[in-house]
Amino acid sequence: MEFTIKAGAPEKLKNGCVVAGVFSGAELSASAKALDKASAGAISTILARGDLDDKAGATLMLHALPGLATPRVLLVSLGKSDALSDKAYRDAVAAAARQLAASPAEDAAFCLGEAEVPGRDLAWRLAQATQILLDSTYRCDELKSKRDESRKDVRQIVFISRTKIDDNLKAALREGQAIAEGMALAKTLGNLPGNVCTPGYLATTAKKLAKDHKIKVEVLERADMEKLGMGSLLSVARGSHEPPKFIILNYKGGKAKDKPVVLVGKGITFDTGGISLKPGEGMDEMKYDMCGAASVLGTLKAIARMELPINVVGLIPTTENMPGGSAIKPGDIVTSMSGQTIEILNTDAEGRLILCDALTYAERFEPAAVIDIATLTGACIIALGNLTSGLLANDDELAAELLASGQAAGDKAWQLPLWDEYQDMLKSNFADIPNIGSKGAGTITAACFLARFTKAYKWAHLDIAGTAWKSGADKGATGRPVPLLTRFLIERASR
Ligand code: BES
Ligand code: MN
Ligand code: ZN
Q1: Catalytic residue (one of 72, 352, 458, 480)
Q2: Centre of ligand 1 from the C-alpha of residue 277, in Å
Q3: How much is the pTM?
Q4: If you placed Cys at 409, which of 23, 104, 211, 487 could pair as Cys (CB 3.0 to 4.6 Å)?
Q5: HSE value, Cβ hemisphere, 13 Å, CA-based, for 5
């Protein structure tokens, strides 16, 4: 799908479909008005009959209107003209995308410039629309023997602007495209099964990403990790026949002296729970336990596409979590790279065991900030459901930045407390720290564990257990939180 922006009169467009907005009470947007006038009132006549629902996101496809060169006009409800929310705008674009996918139109013109969203500028609307439209074309059919050829995507999208087109607006299209491409990479890695997307596969993907972009990559093998003393990470890998990897990506878009933002992604390519085995039902979904890692790769892809002027390091500790003759057992004690000893009371709390060594490794980059991204706790799904990622941080400014980025990106997070009092829930009789807390507050105690390894820098943790994939009939990875992270880095790059 290609995206352009140009000035033009809606009624003169010859595209396969022209998309225009209608506000509630059949109030025509300026573009819809122009189309209505040229078609001798055809649109207002149809609207007067009540064929278009008032609710934001409702659509109506009209064919062969008189006086217009385009064969189709797609009307999209935008709700009240003075109260279009971020969500309503995004819903309207997504609904238009669905209608276009179902129509034979090969190209479409979007006249949604009048869809003013309070607090958001035209660049935001364009970037969001581009991202949503491109993301809607994503599919994962690599492992089907026959591809579904029935769905035909719109090939060209042109945004019709009523204001002067400057570089800022063109950059917005590139941003939306870059984020959707980053999401697509993250989705595909998440959707690929555990027998394909292994730690080695993630390493190969990272190398390919680095080769195609201005990124340096290094992959540490088991022996390298042993030398570094990553005893916690390696303990998780003991039950698996797949060799673990530690992937280091370095994107240097900023000045040499600029401190990098370090992104750390949990890369458990399959989480059986280990000896603390998970129940069988729905266990297939534990192939998604590397979505944190996937979001790091996706975000790096997005910022490299945009050539963002910022330095970013991506760290991906990756292994399977399997039961086996050499697997770690409940009660085992291991020594982390930080020197702290850990009593593994539950082998299913493995994410924090691989993250803690990566977080210690992150110190060597003297980071401006470290953000880890992990499908870490089922408790986070209980607390926030599938809509919102959990956010915990040792720095409130960093947390506020991430919350705002999530809002702007339509990829929201909510902060949970990381107060010292919760640290008392992590006590081990035999080691420095247990890998699980006492009962309750599972998302917080997991973050408290990580906090013991992040004292050297500003750090935030995103628990994406609920947001990284959808269950049910539409099962699949969501590409989150690539939009949030990319937005955050865009803001950081411009400050
Ligand atoms: N990968 C899981 C978390 C998870 C569970 C994500 C369900 C998505 C859906 C993680 O490794 C895990 O198993 N966490 C345990 C921790 C517990 C043993 C303290 C959990 O949440 O049950
Ligand atoms: Mn687990
Ligand atoms: Zn896990």
Answers
A1: 352
A2: 11
A3: 0.98
A4: 487
A5: 23
Tell me the C-alpha to C-alpha distance, in Å, between residue 366 and each of 175, 354, 445.
28, 20, 26
- Quote the CA–CA distance of 255 and 311 in Å, as a whole number: 8
In short, whether 440's Cβ falls inside 6 Å of ligand 1 is no
Q: Give dist(CA 108, CA 13) in Å, integer.
A: 10
Nearest C-alpha neighbor of 450 from the set 377, 345, 347: 377
Q: At 385, which amino acid appears?
A: G
The answer to whether residue 278 is catalytic is: yes
Token pair listed for 17: 């479909």
Backbone angles phi, psi at 172, to 5 degrees: -65, -40
Q: Are 253 and 311 in contact (CB under 8 A)?
A: yes
- Cβ atoms of residues 248 and 241 within 8 Å: no
CA of 271 to the centre of ligand 2 (A): 6
| Catalytic residue check, 139 | no
Which residues 6+ apart lie within 8 Å of 425 measured at CB?
437, 438, 440, 441, 445, 448
What does residue 62 show for φ and ψ, rounded to 5 degrees? -110, 140
DSSP 3-state of 240: coil
* 183 burial via Cβ count (<10 Å: 0-12, 13-18, 19+): buried
Residues 13-23 have pLDDT tens digits of 999 999 999 99
Tokens of 170: 């063109």
CB count within 10 Å of CB 106 equals 14
Q: Is the CB of 341 under 6 A from ligand 1?
A: no
Distance between Cα 232 and ligand 2 center (Å): 14
Average of per-residue pLDDT values in the chain: 97
Q: What residues contact residue 206 under an 8 Å CB cut-off, 6+ apart? A: 217, 219, 247, 249, 297, 314, 316
pLDDT digits (tens, 9 = 90+) for 470-492: 999 999 999 999 999 999 999 99
Indicate if ligand 1 lies below 6 Å from the C-beta of 443: no
Q: Which two tokens stand for residue 466?
A: 């609920």
Joined together, the tokens standing for residue 350 give: 């493995």
Q: Quick: pLDDT tens for 168-192.
A: 999 999 999 999 999 999 999 999 9
